[in-house]
């Protein structure tokens, strides 16, 4: 009887596996696979332009057999809700970074304070063995990275004038649900408040929080300059995001569509990088035309010194080991150059 049960379970397991894989003959232009790509940026933002370029390339290269529906502006929920949706297969794709850390700790390395000093360092790591290691970990957590998106450095905005880490003590700062970021700012002495990006403007306007940190583009597109007096150039994170799809959704694709999808990603990656470097200073220039006051004389070392211990104490063993390897590799490379 036990053997019979084992045989039945094995057959059922096999049927489940085979039923998940989509037969390529069943996928046509008239009966396509449809992926929902949801993100929280605005329609005019570079991320959305990259998403639309990806949509165009994928649909052209797969002859319409894989369609991408793009939902900007948080239409399908917060970043955390979308990530949960990807794992539940109610959503398929998003553009994300450290917000994946509660699901996959290695995502912390996409936005670790003072790990990278420039976009060029990130690109070098993306083209190295370290990207393969990070991608493998993300896939084990259910997220398949397809492309990366560079970001301008994260900076602090506040209604208080800040020049060093001591000045930032006790500020009430909004942060995303990214534990490493929360831990790092707590080590500076800030009072951290976790909330979604879509709620942040109202919270700043009503005084629920008096500070936040983001790259220039989000400071501008979210109109934070209307409710913040100062932009403090801490440059505390040079980071990147990934265009990710659910690992299950990717694995379920017919092999011939996977091949064309990979080609579309390579083509789109070049577009995304070119667009980034062509426009990366645009938002800073736009912010300089607003009422927000830039503070450039920032003692960044004071922030770094406060955050380093917190980073080392927070990261799990595997992620910390990879963090050290990347640091050593970048330092060694800089010495050679």
Short structural description:
With 337 residues, the chain is α/β, with parallel strands linked by helices. It has helices at residues 2-20, 46-61, 79-88, 119-126, 129-140, 179-188, 200-206, 216-221, 247-251, 255-279, 282-288, 300-314, 317-336; strands spanning 33-38, 66-71, 93-96, 143-150, 154-158, 172-175, 191-194, 211-214, 230-237, 240-246, 293-295.
Please render the helix and strand layout as text:
Elements (H helix, E strand, L loop, with lengths): L1 H19 L12 E6 L7 H16 L4 E6 L7 H10 L4 E4 L22 H8 L2 H12 L2 E8 L3 E5 L13 E4 L3 H10 L2 E4 L5 H7 L4 E4 L1 H6 L8 E8 L2 E7 H5 L3 H25 L2 H7 L4 E3 L4 H15 L2 H20 L1
Parallel strand pairs: 1-2, 6-7, 6-8, 9-11
Antiparallel strand pairs: 3-10, 4-10, 5-8, 5-9
Helix pairs in contact: 2-10, 6-12
């Amino acid at each position: 009887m036990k053997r019979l049960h084992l045989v039945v379970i094995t057959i059922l397991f096999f049927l489940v596996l085979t039923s998940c894989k989509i037969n390529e003959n069943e996928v046509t232009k008239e009966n396509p696979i449809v992926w929902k790509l949801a993100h929280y940026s605005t329609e005019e933002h570079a991320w959305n332009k990259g998403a639309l370029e990806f949509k165009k390339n994928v649909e052209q290269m797969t002859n319409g057999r894989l369609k991408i529906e793009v939902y900007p502006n948080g239409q399908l929920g917060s970043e955390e809700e979308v990530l949960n949706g990807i794992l539940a297969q109610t959503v398929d794709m998003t553009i994300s970074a450290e917000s994946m850390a509660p699901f996959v700790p290695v995502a912390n390395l996409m936005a670790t304070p003072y790990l990278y000093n420039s976009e060029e360092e990130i690109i070098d790591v993306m083209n190295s063995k370290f990207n393969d290691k990070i991608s493998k970990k993300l896939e084990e957590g259910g997220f398949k990275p397809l492309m990366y998106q560079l970001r301008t450095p994260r900076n602090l905005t506040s209604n208080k004038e800040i020049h060093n880490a001591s000045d930032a003590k006790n500020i009430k700062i909004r942060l995303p649900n990214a534990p490493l970021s929360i831990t790092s700012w707590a080590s500076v002495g800030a009072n951290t408040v976790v909330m979604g990006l879509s709620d942040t403007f109202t919270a700043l306007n009503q005084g629920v929080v008096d500070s936040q940190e983001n790259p220039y583009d989000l400071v501008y597109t979210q109109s934070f300059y209307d409710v913040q007096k100062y932009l403090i150039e801490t440059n505390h994170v040079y980071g990147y995001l990934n265009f990710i799809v659910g690992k299950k959704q990717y694995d379920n694709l017919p092999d011939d569509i996977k091949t064309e999808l990979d080609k579309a990603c390579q083509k789109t990656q070049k577009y995304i990088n070119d667009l980034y470097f062509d426009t990366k200073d645009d938002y800073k220039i736009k912010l300089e035309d607003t009422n927000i006051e830039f503070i450039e004389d920032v003692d960044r070392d004071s922030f770094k010194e406060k955050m380093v211990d917190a980073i080392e104490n927070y990261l799990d063993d595997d992620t910390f080991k990879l963090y050290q390897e990347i640091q050593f590799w970048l330092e060694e490379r800089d010495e050679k150059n």
